[in-house]
Amino acid sequence: MSRAYELVMVKGNTGYMKAPVLIPFYLLDANHCIIMDTGKNLMREGIVKTLEENKLVPVGLLCTHTHYDHYGNAGFLAEKYQCPIALPLGEAEISRTLDAVKSHVFAFSAGQVARDPKMAAIPCVTDHIIRPKDKETFFCGIRFGILHTKGHAIDHVSIITPDKVCYVGDALMCGVSLETAKLPYAFDLGKHLNSIELLRNAKCSHMIMAHRGVYTAPFDALIDENLAVVRKEIQAVADLIDRPMKEEEIYQTVQSAMGIQIRRPEEALNMKCFLQPYLEYLIDQNILKLSIRDQVLCYEPV
Ligand SMILES: [Fe+2]
C-alpha cells in the first residue's frame, strides 16, 4: 500500500508532490490543479492518495515528454478525473499507440513492450497539442510558457508556470542523479546539449527537476555541471573506441570500463537503447566512422 506524498509549495501556486519522481502542479484554487507529468505507473496509488488527502482534483495533465517515468499515469488519470492531456506534437505522435512506443525503445520486441506494465501504461490519445513554434500554451484557462528543450526525448518541452517557475522535466539533472550519471539517456545528444544551454537564459526564478531538485536563479553552475557531465560521458565512450570495434566488443568494453552490470536480457536491451545515441552522436560529429571488417559492421576513430 502506497502512502500519500508530501506536498511542497515552491512559489505562488506552483508546487510538487515529493514522489520518487517529482510531480509538479499548478493550483487553480484550493481544490483544483494542473499536474505536470504523471510519474511511473507504480506511483499511481500514491498520486491518487495525495490528491484525495489534499482534496485536490486535477483538471488537466500538462506533460514534458512520454517516457514511462513521466507519462505512466496520463491515460489513467485522464480517465479517472475526466481531464485533458497536453503534450508537444512529437511526443503526442510517439505515445499514441503501443507500436509507436515500441519504435523508440527499438531494441525491445513489440511483445516485450506489450507485456511490460510500465511500457503498456504509456499509450493514450492527447487532447491538447503544443505545436513546434508555440512559445506558450493556453491550457485549462492558464497561460504557460514553453521552452522547446528537445534532445532528451524527441520533442521534450520545459514548462514555465505563471509564477515563473520552470519545470524542466529531464532536460536537466541535479544532485545524486547528476553525480552518479552513467550514459545519461538522450534520444539526440547534440540537441540535448543545445537544450541544456538554452535553459541558461530561461526567464524564471526557480527550476524544478523531475529527478529531484529545486534550484533558484542564477542557473549557470547547474547548466555548466550538466554540460560537463554529458560531454564527459560522450568523451569517455569516444576514448574507449580506439580501434575498429564490433558492436558487441563496444558494449563489453563500455560496460566493463563504466562498471555497468548486465544480468538480465532486458538490461542488455536497455543498454543498446542508451549507448546507441552516443555512437550516433560520435558518427555525426565525425569522431567515429563506420567500416566493415570480416563482413561485420565496425566503429572506428576517424
Ligand atoms: Fe525522460
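^ fe (ii) ion complex. The longest strand covers residues 23-29. The first helix runs from residue 44 to 53.
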